[in-house]
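Task card 7
Instruction: Convert sequence to structure tokens.
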Amino acid sequence: QYDPPHDAGGGGVLERLLTPQEIAQAWALDVSTVRRLFQDREGVLKLGNQTARGKRAYVTLRIPLAVVERVKRERSR
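Output:
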């Protein structure tokens, strides 16, 4: 698995991006739950066909570590 260099301070251009599958495994949640949790969050990268007409839209999420940590803090209150 490729692990690109990342900015230790968070929020940098080379910040580690996680897949919904990685987060689901770490948090013991279903992937669809993770997708719903992050799909509308600021900072989440959405790649793919978001405006398919008459077809299902396929969108791949890549979630910055800083966003994951922020959501984790919010949910643990």
